[in-house]
């Protein structure tokens, strides 16, 4: 798969406890991204954060172990494909933040096996 030099980064910030169809929302989003043929997706689990629904700090500490840590999903592809993908997933995101920004793609390659 080739990506143009000027791509876009879709960043989705949700909570770890968010669900869709009885599975974690972040997992569902990644599976949808693969099904839609997007270049790739990465899920990052935050150590600390807060969001629109609560001003309470969620943190990864053993004395106050949160069950709803921040999750960041990053996907890079063309703007057109990401806009179409966002239209597909937006109804399933009850609370969160989504951003899109230009990204300079330096290379995108797979192992030659």
Report what the structure shows.
The protein has one domain (6-104): Alpha-Beta Plaits, CATH 3.30.70. The chain contains two helices and eight strands; from the N terminus they run βββαββββαβ. It has helices spanning 25-35, 79-89; strands spanning 6-15, 19-20, 23-24, 41-45, 48-49, 58-59, 70-77, 97-104. The strands form three sheets. The protein has a four-stranded antiparallel beta sheet. Strands 2-3 form a two-stranded antiparallel ribbon. It is globular. The model has no long low-confidence stretch (mean pLDDT 86).
In short:
With 113 residues, this protein is an alpha+beta fold.
Q: Secondary-structure map with pairings?
A:
Blueprint: E1 6-15, E2 19-20, E3 23-24, H1 25-35, E4 41-45, E5 48-49, E6 58-59, E7 70-77, H2 79-89, E8 97-104
Unreliable stretches covering 5 or more consecutive residues: none
Count structural domains: 1
How many distinct helices?
Answer: 2
Helix content: 10-25%
Morphology? globular
Q: Calculate the terminal CA-CA distance, rounded to whole Å.
A: 15 Å
Rounded to an integer in angstroms, the radius of gyration calculated over CA atoms is 15 Å
CATH topology description:
Alpha-Beta Plaits
Element order: H for helix, E for strand: EEEHEEEEHE
Enumerate the strands of the largest sheet in spatial order, edge to edge or round the barrel.
Answer: 4-7-1-8
Strand content: 25-35%
The assembly state of the depicted protein chains is single chain
């Amino acid at each position: 798969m080739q990506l143009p030099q000027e791509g876009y980064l879709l960043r989705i910030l949700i909570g770890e406890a968010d669900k869709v169809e009885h599975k974690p929302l972040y997992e569902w989003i990644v599976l949808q991204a693969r099904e839609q043929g997007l270049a790739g997706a990465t899920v990052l689990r935050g150590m600390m954060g807060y969001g629109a629904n609560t001003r309470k700090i969620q943190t990864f500490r053993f004395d106050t172990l949160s069950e709803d840590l921040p999750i960041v999903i990053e996907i890079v592809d063309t703007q057109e494909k990401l806009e179409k993908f966002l239209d597909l997933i937006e109804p399933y995101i009850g609370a969160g933040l989504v951003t899109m920004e230009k990204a300079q793609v330096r290379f995108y390659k797979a192992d030659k096996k």
